Amino acid sequence: MDRLFAKFANATSQAAGSPITFIICVLAVILWAIMGPVFDYSETWQLIINTGTTIVTFLMVFLIQNTQNRDSHALQTKLDELIRTSGAEDEFMGIENMTDAELEVLHKKCQREAEHSQRKLQRTHKEREARRSKSK
Prior knowledge:
InterPro entries: Iron_permease_Fet4. Helices cover 84% and strands 0% of the residues. The protein has helices spanning 2-16, 19-38, 43-85, 100-135.
């Protein structure tokens, strides 16, 4: 059942984001607007578009959220595998389960290390330029 729903949610999410779906929706709204004078802009005429869009929006929220959750989980798993098999710090594995405060501490650590690497790189560039200047 889970696999069937996952396939359905993926297919629906892909279809919902396609240009043809957008065109169909625009045409439906234009048709609805054209029918306004025919139905004398009645409450029923208004109710049709309101009810239709509400139902579609309500259902799409859950389908798209399911797809995003699955994509996020797959991406996180891939990142964890890259971390596990590379020389990266193992402390980054599973960080999606940390609290916001723990993530902020880790983020600040990464910022400090990035700044340190940047300073080191700048020193290397300056040293290289100095050597080039001396050799001229």
